[in-house]
Structures are given as structure tokens and as C-alpha cells.
Amino acid sequence: MKQRFAAKLISLTAAVGMLIALGSTTVSAAEATNDTDATLKITFFAETKPREISEFVETNEITLESFTVKSILGITECTSGYVINEQLDFESMWDEFVYMQTALLSEGIESFEDSSATDDMSFMLEAIMNNDVQTSIICENADITQSYAFVGSEIIESVEVLDSCAIETLGEDELKSSKSSYGNWLPTYGWGGAWPSSNVADATYLEVSYRWDYAYQLAGLTEDEDSTFEADLVLYNYDNTAMATDWYSGNYTYNTNQPRPYRDTKAFDNDDEPVFCIGCSDAASLVAGKDYYWIAYGNETGSSSCKAKLNLQRGHRVIDSIYEETWNIFGDETITAIPFSSWNTATDPKKYFQFYYV
Prior knowledge:
Blueprint: H1 6-10, E1 19-21, E2 40-44, H2 50-59, E3 63-71, E4 79-83, H3 90-111, H4 117-130, E5 133-140, H5 142-146, E6 156-161, H6 172-176, E7 189-196, E8 204-211, H7 219-222, E9 227-235, E10 252-256, E11 261-263, E12 275-276, E13 278-280, E14 292-298, E15 308-317, E16 329-338, E17 350-354
Antiparallel strand pairs: 1-6, 2-5, 2-6, 3-4, 3-5, 4-10, 7-8, 7-17, 8-14, 9-12, 9-15, 10-14, 11-13, 15-16
């Protein structure tokens, strides 16, 4: 995540982001905002059927930006995301999501065969297949931002205004100020990987994994309650040979077991170095001894390999109570774990790094 969001933050409305609890049959919240551009996160009760969500979306004429799915089995903390560039009815998008997640998670399970992360992937795939999940949709719609009197609200657990926060009270110096690290934060080891997908045509499979062996190695994150962490996969495109330059074309999906993940924006990326990242907005909850990862599909450019690098970044949330929002993340320090000079996916589809602690 680049240090690039101050102007956007200052332009947001001053109302504090809020979580609105809904009754079992009606929406009890009063009108919360007149800002018709506000983005809402609507979370449905666990195991709400895709057909019910589809009827809700259609009846309320909601336009979706994305949705996320979390397992309710208590076995894994995985999050699967689906980003929407082409609007379809929700059931059709759900079917596509299941197909893409099955392909992505199957590819991940095969690649991570020697990692404990395969357990998280397997449990998440099972949860999706059995609808043992809780779904949240992200949307913008004038009718629903002016009133929370949804039709069919008995299936809604909560509504959250995502981009209405008291941010414009902060000065530019506060928005741009970096935080010093409390101590160690670099993972003990990990890797990045990129290759043409074996399961989805016109897709590049992308993966990153990292872990800390001991708690003292990530104290610089866990002892700072608003800390964030990113492992950025960067592809070399100075010669126009990058395997991927953007996320998968059309609607696309990702999966991760990081706490409170967010999909980093590519809006301000350098075209010569396209960056891919699913970040962690709650790095204080990271633990030693666990294999963390994110996997996703990028587009396909016609190139089957390229140079690549892996950057690691610690950062912080500007408003510490707001998670999973890219615009609320500020990067404080970036370390290149694997440089372009030592990684070409033609010879090393998967490249490892290690930091030594004494």
C-alpha cells in the first residue's frame, strides 16, 4: 500500500463510521446519512442462502461492488472475496464465485502441500460448498443510503457505513506521519509465487506465504494495536513482459487466512511495476507458528514468465477503529525480501526468503 491516500481521506464526509444493528424482522436504525455516495457493508445472518440474498439485492435494486465470505465453522479464519466488474444477478455471481474459489483453492492446496495453510484452504472450500459461511456485500445505492428500511431485512444482521468517518478533522501532517516500529516485524521466512493458472484460462495464479517462528520476531506488530502488514507481489514490466498487469479480467476472486484482510488498490501503481496484494489490517492479531497466505488470480498478458520481487510492509490504520479499508492504511516501512535481480519466474515459479534473528 503506497502512501497515497491523504487527498481521498480528506474528501470523505465527517460523520463517524457506524455499525447499525438490525432487528429480526425490521430495520430499527434511524436515517444515518444523506450522503448518497456512501458505501455500505451489509452483513447477512450466517447460512443465509444465496437465493435469499439474490432476492434481497434485486428487490432493493442494489448495485454490488464486491462481497466477502467467511467460514462459520470455527476451524479456520479464512476470508474469500469476490470483486464485481460485471453486474449479474446474485445467484449467477455466486455460482461463478464458487467455481472460481474451487479452482483457486484447489490450485492453492496443491502448491501449499507442505504447509499447514492447506488445512485452512481445505476447510474453507468445504464451508463454501456446504454454505457454512457468513456473507457480506459491499454496495452503493442512493435509495438505501438515505434510509435503512430494506425490504426483506429479516435476513440482515448488520449494516455498516464504510466511508463516512471523522477523518477530515485530521491534518495533513497526521495523515502523512509514519510510526516507528516497536521492535522486530519481519517474518522468519516465506515465499512468493506466480505462474499461468492450470485451472482457469487466461489467468495468472499468484500466491504469497509468510510466518514467524517465535513471538519476539513479530513484537513490533503485535504490541501496536493499530498495526497493519502487507506482503506485496510485484511483477517486472519495464520491458512489457509482466505475466500479469492487473487482477483477473471481469469478476475475480481471492482467498486469505490473514486477520481482517483488505484488497489493496491498484489505482496509483506504477505501470512498470504492477503490485498485487491482499493485506492484513489487524496485524496485532498475527501469531507465531502459523503459515499465513493470500492467493488470487491476475490477468494473462501472453507472457508465461517475468522478473518479480516481494516487498514486505508494516503500516498502521489512520483511524484505529476501522478495519479492512484500503484508504485507512498508511505504510510506515517497506523492505524488499526478494529483489528483481534474484527472481525470475521462468526458473523459479516459487521463490523463498528468510530473515535470520540472533
